[in-house]
Design goal:
The chain has about 80 residues and is of the alpha+beta class. It has two helices and six strands; from the N terminus they run E-E-E-H-E-E-E-H.
């Protein structure tokens, strides 16, 4: 499993993510906004509070939401293969 080492939440519900092996890319999470536990993301300021959890090495938010790094990695790898 790759570890998330850096994230940036510039705008429009996208995350720039870098992994421990150097792979990096942008993931669009806009389709998750307002659904289930992601209802708090309806406020862009809440989404922008994303951080790297130093214990789990995942992308996380202060309200307890976190994302599986494997799924993020796979999405970025697929984007790079398609390019």
């Amino acid at each position: 499993m790759q570890r998330v080492t850096y994230i940036e939440a510039p705008k429009n519900y996208r995350l720039k993510v870098r992994f421990s092996d150097g792979m990096e890319g942008v993931v669009d999470l806009s389709e998750m906004v307002g659904k289930g536990v992601c209802t708090t993301w309806s406020d862009p300021g809440q989404f922008a509070r994303a951080f790297v959890d130093e214990t789990t090495h995942t992308v996380a938010w202060p309200n307890g939401i976190d994302l599986c790094p494997d799924a993020l990695y796979e999405e970025i790898a697929e984007q790079q293969e398609a390019a």
